[in-house]
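Quick start: what a row looks like.
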Amino acid sequence: MKKVTSIAPLIRILILSISIIICSNLFCGFASGQNKIIQLYPGTAPNSKDWSWNEQETKKNPLNERIVYNVTHPSLTAFYPDSVSKNATTVIVCPGGGLHVLMIDHDGTRVARELNRKGIVVFVLKYRLVHSLTDDPWKEMISGSGDSISESAILKMAENDAANSIIYVRVHATELGIDPRRIGIMGFSSGGTLANFLAFHSEKESRPDFVASIYGATEVSDKMEVPENAAPLFIAAASDDQLVPVSNSVNLYTAWVNSKHSVELHLYAKGRHGLHGFPAESWLIRFEEWLVSQNLVDSN
């Protein structure tokens, strides 16, 4: 009678091998797949359950670039470099747009792809906006028309979206393949308002490990106390900014200096709102150098 060899151990090994392959493929899908969209909330976003309008895109704006409006379901769009180290630094990017639109390409995808070249993982945040009543949100923003919901109410929602984006990324750090201790936030214009808000006001779970305020719209006053555990701060703006007074950036820098926290400021004589033209457009290179000085990315 022939001895029957049990195949159970072989089956277990096969199942384990398949599981490892599947898990590896899932991570590689995250690490190499661009534009993976992550919904920030499991259902309807808090305090906006009656919002029935849909997110839209248009190029109706002076830059003729893609903008997003009528965001009702906040989300993160993932941008991964070709290879991700186990201690990868992450930047959550908050595009500007006066709380009416998101300059999703100028302040979002363009920046994400540049940072990817440095091995940085980027999540572009779509936060809630003022409801546009037409297909020309830029015109509504300039004219001051739009939904009756106040901008202050929308700002509070957007601030919550920014805080929850940090919480989400940190909680899912292992799954996302990033370092939970190297999660920063970068904001442009009104998106800078969100980043600056978290620089001043954040809980332990939502505290950014570093902050970048790019022509951020935040009027800093003596009543705004810099927290004891304030994150390192990078600031860039132009002296001829026609929309956000450069004093916003200068006063923010002064507050960090006076509180003896790490801060770096780059002011350009010309560049207007958006840091256009040379040398203002080199601000991103200065930011990458700053990340190296903070030991957040390698110098090579």
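That is the whole record. Residues 5 and 11 are 12 Å apart (CA to CA). The chain has one domain: 37-293.
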